[in-house]
Structure formats: structure tokens, C-alpha cells
């Protein structure tokens, strides 16, 4: 028998939840390709190690951009590699797949995601919106007639949504998230310190000392890069306060989207959100001070999910069970 799987097809990482086993795969959404032969050289963690470090004939590609498929063939190859690695196919049957997408995705982009999952070895493919799945994975009971608000800050998109009765009532999806934060850090270090750093280094800065509210000036990290003037390698010290400054524009846009969603929310559901608070999920939820920043701007309690990085993948497992349950009746 094939085992049903839930896939969090993220811009930065792919997480796969196998029914009955939980999350069994968490690898970067990167594929290394030999440009001369067109062959896939490495997928996932191995390919991620090659980013910015490959010779001219090998290219590290991130096939998803801003939460949607930018390169269909490479996405299909990546999914096929991961699904085969897990050995979830049955002798005569294919696994059902539940896969997630941002809320502002077009019908053509939806079709591309479903098609990629089918071609990579899936049987029946279900598509669900990311904030709904993340809310379920974070432990919210979205199937009751009460308002639940979620802010999911991933790698390519930030999704803000209010849910009730198992459906999205109002939502906004921004193509502004972890990747744009990394780009903002690269730009800031270039302008402030006259140093060119790679996206890997920017990501490490964000993970280690990234802060968005009342940053601790004593928190610092040494980074190495190329001096703009001399072209030679150089090391500088970056502080958490500088990172707060670097990330301020991206955070302001996400806060503006959250305020928009709250303005469009029916009054009864708004009252529920004051009681229940807002749930933060995704990698962005791990930034220092992020819950305090949202709480001060939105004037409602803000909580961070227990496993913010795994919330979407955990939610796919719960929703897959629901789908299977409904099939039996």
C-alpha cells in the first residue's frame, strides 16, 4: 500500500510528512544542475552546500521563487527525488499528496504545482492554502465558528489570514519574506560596511543575531566578504541593532498587510482575535522580538507556534487524515 504524504513545498525548504510516520524529510529547495549535459548533479542539502561555490558548468537552482514554481522541470525532478528517497509508493498504488500554496496564487500556478506533484509520482493530489495548513499545524482549532488569525512568514511569501469554520475569511499574501530579508541584509552590509557578502552569510546573520524589536547592541557576529574598494577579503563585525535597521522595511510591509487583514475582518471575529491572539508560524517567527513587534503594532496578544518551522508540514498530516476520514463516508 502506498503511504499518503503531505508536502510543504517551500521556497527555502521542502518538508514531507508521511502518514503514520510524521515529518521524515526536511531539505533545502535547491537543485544543482550540470549546464553542459542538463543532468541533475545534486538535490536538497548536497545542492545547498554548492550555492555560490560551484564552477561555471554547475549551477545551483532554486526552482521555487516567491512561493510559486519558477522552473517546472527542476521542481518536478526535485520532488521525484525526494518521493523516491522516502520509498512511499506501493507495488500497484501511488500515494495521495496534499501540497500547500500561498493564498494569492493564480489558477495557472495552482495547476503547475498539482501537475508537478502528479508527475513526480503522486496519485490523487490535493491543494490547500498555506495559512490554513499552518494554523492547523500550530494547534489552532480552525473548524469552530470563531476567529483565528495567523501570520506565516516563510522563505518566499508571508501569508496573513483570518480563519473561521475551516475556511479563510480574509487574507493577504506578500512576496516578501525570508529571501527578501536576506537580500536586505546583503544590501545593508554593502552600503554600511562597503563589504560584499553572499546570501549564505546573510542567512547566517539573520538566524544567529536577527532581531526586529529592541535589539541587543551587545549581540554581534563577525562576517567575511569581499571589500568593494580593494576587492580583497575582509572581516567586519555586525550588530543585532544593525540587523533590526536592515529588516525594518520588510517588517513594515508585513505589519501593514496584517493591519489590512484586521480592517477587513468582521467585528465578531475581531473580538475573538482580541481574546485568542495572533499565531506566528514559519521561519520568520524565530526572529528575536518579532512577537513583541506585532503585539505593539496590532494591539492584540501575539503568540509563536511551538514548532514554527514545521507548522505547515504538521498541518498537512492532520488535514490528510481529515480527507481520508471524509472519503470513508
Automatic annotation (TrEMBL):
Chain sites annotated for binding ATP? 11-13, 155-157, 203-206, 283-286
Protein location: Cytoplasm
Q: Tell me the domain of life.
A: Bacteria
Mind listing the UniProt keywords for this protein, alphabetically? ATP-binding, Cell shape, Cytoplasm, Nucleotide-binding
Would you tell me the Gene Ontology cellular component terms?
Answer: cytoplasm
The entry lists its GO molecular-function terms as: ATP binding
Instruction: Tell me where the transmembrane regions lie.
Output: none
Could you confirm whether the keyword Transferase appears in this record? no
| BP-aspect Gene Ontology terms | cell morphogenesis; regulation of cell shape
Listed under subunit, the entry gives: Forms polymers.
Which PANTHER family does the annotation name?
Answer: CELL SHAPE-DETERMINING PROTEIN MBL, CELL SHAPE-DETERMINING PROTEIN MREB
Function, please? Forms membrane-associated dynamic filaments that are essential for cell shape determination. Acts by regulating cell wall synthesis and cell elongation, and thus cell shape. A feedback loop between cell geometry and MreB localization may maintain elongated cell shape by targeting cell wall growth to regions of negative cell wall curvature.
Q: Belongs to which family? A: Belongs to the FtsA/MreB family.
Report what the protein is called.
Cell shape-determining protein MreB
Question: Which gene does this sequence derive from?
Answer: mreB
Amino acid at each position: 500500500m502506498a503511504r499518503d504524504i503531505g508536502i510543504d513545498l517551500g521556497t527555502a525548504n521542502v518538508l514531507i510528512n508521511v502518514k503514520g510516520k510524521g515529518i521524515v524529510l526536511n531539505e533545502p529547495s535547491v537543485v544543482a544542475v550540470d549546464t553542459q549535459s542538463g543532468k541533475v548533479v545534486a538535490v536538497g542539502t548536497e545542492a545547498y552546500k554548492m550555492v555560490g561555490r560551484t564552477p561555471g558548468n554547475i549551477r545551483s537552482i532554486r526552482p521555487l521563487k516567491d512561493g510559486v514554481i519558477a522552473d517546472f522541470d527542476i521542481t518536478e525532478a526535485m520532488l521525484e527525488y525526494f518521493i523516491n528517497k522516502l520509498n512511499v509508493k506501493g507495488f500497484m498504488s501511488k500515494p495521495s499528496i496534499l501540497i500547500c500554496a500561498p493564498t494569492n496564487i493564480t489558477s495557472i500556478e495552482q495547476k503547475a504545482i498539482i501537475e508537478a506533484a502528479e508527475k513526480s509520482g503522486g496519485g490523487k493530489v490535493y491543494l490547500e492554502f498555506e495559512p490554513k495548513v499552518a494554523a492547523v499545524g500550530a494547534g489552532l482549532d480552525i473548524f469552530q465558528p470563531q476567529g483565528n488569525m495567523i501570520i506565516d512568514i516563510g522563505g518566499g511569501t508571508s501569508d496573513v489570514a483570518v480563519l473561521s469554520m475551516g475556511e479563510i475569511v480574509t487574507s493577504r499574501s506578500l512576496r516578501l519574506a525570508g529571501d527578501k530579508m536576506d537580500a536586505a541584509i546583503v544590501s545593508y552590509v554593502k552600503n554600511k560596511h562597503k563589504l560584499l557578502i553572499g546570501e549564505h552569510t546573510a542567512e547566517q546573520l539573520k538566524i544567529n543575531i536577527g532581531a526586529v524589536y529592541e535589539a541587543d547592541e551587545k549581540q554581534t557576529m563577525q562576517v567575511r566578504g569581499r571589500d568593494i574598494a580593494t576587492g580583497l577579503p575582509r572581516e567586519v563585525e555586525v550588530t543585532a541593532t544593525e540587523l533590526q535597521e536592515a529588516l525594518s522595511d520588510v517588517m513594515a510591509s508585513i505589519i501593514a498587510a496584517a493591519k489590512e487583514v484586521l480592517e477587513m475582518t468582521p467585528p465578531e471575529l475581531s473580538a475573538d482575535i482580541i481574546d485568542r491572539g495572533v499565531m506566528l508560524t514559519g521561519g520568520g517567527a524565530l526572529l528575536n522580538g518579532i512577537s513583541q513587534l506585532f503585539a505593539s503594532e496590532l494591539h492584540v496578544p501575539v503568540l509563536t507556534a511551538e514548532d514554527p518551522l514545521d507548522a505547515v508540514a504538521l498541518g498537512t498530516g492532520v488535514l490528510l487524515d481529515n480527507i481520508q476520514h471524509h472519503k470513508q463516508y
